[in-house]
Amino acid sequence: MGTAREVFGDALPIAERYAEFLADAGVERGLIGPREADRLWERHLINCAVVAEAIPENARVVDIGTGAGLPGLVLAIVRPDLSITLLEPLLRRTNFLNEAVELLGLENVEVRRGRAEEVVKEFSMDVATARAVAPLERLVRWALPLLRPGGELLAMKGERAAAEIEEAAPALERFGVRTTELLQVGQGKVEPPTTLVRVVAERAPRPAKGSKKRSS
Questions:
Q1: What mean pLDDT do residues 50-76 have?
Q2: Degrees (nearest 5) of the Cα angle 85, 88, 92?
Q3: Which of 96, 119, 143, 211 is the most buried (most CB within 10 A)?
Q4: Bridge-partner residues for 185, per DSSP?
């Protein structure tokens, strides 16, 4: 818990309530596996909280396919300056998230039921986050349209992160991204450090091959 205290600071009591809720209702409703209850802090909470190191102050963040609120709800706990939208298509998960937000008293969180492609016209976010949602090639197509020019996708990835960047090259080229890079956050706090793929948006995507531009 020493590391948890270092990472969460004064917000540790809120994180502890969230951990209890995950271990109870989260397991009961199938949002996390029963074996995960004993390793919530290192594998999930701290692992997600250190993503905050890569997010600028007062950013508007959308967490795509947030599930049980990982990493979005954790980021809202550790960074009250952030404005977080938890985007999740499944009703049972959004019910869980709404209960968690109320339980934790978080005022910087909005729970939104839907898929990324359904809300694209409504969002112009600074940052999009995602954890264990989809390969980067698909994630880029979902996330980048939700960002303002210069906004960034922070995708939590494992040891295949570099390979996923190569596989996503056509999608990255289509979106004309400014930069794509690997980051490691949480050095000395979580082992191994959390790996992020950071993709910075530049402009709207080009029409796919074969598509026709509408005349006005």
A1: 97
A2: 125
A3: 143
A4: 194
